[in-house]
Design goal:
alpha+beta, globular, two-stranded antiparallel sheet, outer membrane lipoprotein receptor (LolB), chain A, 5 helices, single chain
Length: 273
């Protein structure tokens, strides 16, 4: 009798186990990275030649200073150029205009009408705008810089590891760690010193969609850090950077992005007759 009960219990356990199939195994590192890379390449193709309005609030604590910068922030895909070039044109500092009416949208005009050496001239404008920062941080504060490391040409320069699921961002958002090990580093100082990169990327392990990035650069114990959050823009129909937070020791910054719009890059002069 006892043996028959044990046999019935075992059969019931087998039937119960069959009613609840095992969860599918989580994707491995290579699969997650490949999906994130495919998403990044799609992101670049959809996001190229977009301009946004950036509102950046910088603040230091010792001494206490605060500054609000408003800028046109362009993400330019120039013909025969790999990747996008981010360019910032500051037009307002603490509520006061710093460019005249004749200079309005001057950065976009460099690309929407044929101008020789337009990219060089645009970089000059961006470098000039960097002088309005509370500290000399150059043009490092780019919301997309960590996302670029997923490109096929850059991926071999990093060590990649999977971390846990971040349920606060979504049920399938996987954390990916990266650390640059090849030299020279991708990012460098104005004096051409190494700035090795490390950080985290939060991506959907099923679709590869990137929802957040965190980048740290350099060798300091408390290195400069840039964190970017992404959102979907219904008007453009694509994902866009929503917010960037950056830290440089005592200097902190919070940037918000909006008013996204597209423009067309032109490179050929009309032939005069």
């Amino acid at each position: 009798m006892n043996q028959g009960r044990r046999l019935l219990g075992a059969c019931a356990a087998v039937a119960l186990a069959g009613a609840f199939p095992r969860a599918a195994a989580a994707p491995d590192l290579q699969t997650v990275l490949d999906r994130a890379t495919a998403y990044e390449l799609k992101f670049v193709s959809e996001f190229e030649n977009v301009v946004a309005e950036e509102v950046l609030v910088q603040e230091t604590t010792s001494p206490h200073r605060k500054r609000t910068l408003k800028s046109d922030f362009l993400f330019v895909k120039y013909p025969d150029m790999a990747g996008m070039i981010p360019l910032r044109d500051v037009f307002e500092v603490d509520g006061k205009p710093v460019r005249g009416a004749a200079q309005a949208e001057r950065m976009m005009k460099l690309f929407t009408s044929p101008v020789h050496d337009s990219l060089v001239r645009a970089r000059v404008i961006a470098d000039e705008g960097a002088r309005f920062n509370l500290w000399n941080i150059g043009t490092l504060n780019n919301p997309l810089v960590a996302l670029v490391f997923l490109q096929p040409d850059y991926r071999p320069r990093f060590r990649w590891n999977l971390a846990g699921i971040d349920k606060s961002l979504g049920p399938s958002i996987r954390t990916i760690r990266f650390q640059e090990f090849q030299v020279p580093s991708i990012l460098r100082t104005d004096a051409n010193n190494e700035l090795p990169s490390r950080g985290l990327i939060w991506a959907d392990e099923e679709t590869g969609q990137v929802v957040k990035t965190r980048l740290q650069v350099g060798y300091a114990r408390t290195p400069p850090e840039i964190v970017t959050m992404y959102r979907h823009d219904p008007e453009l129909g694509i994902d866009v950077p929503a917010e960037m937070r950056d830290w440089y020791g005592d200097l902190t910054g919070v940037a918000a992005y909006g008013k996204f719009r597209r423009f067309e890059v032109k490179t050929e002069e009309a032939i005069q007759k």
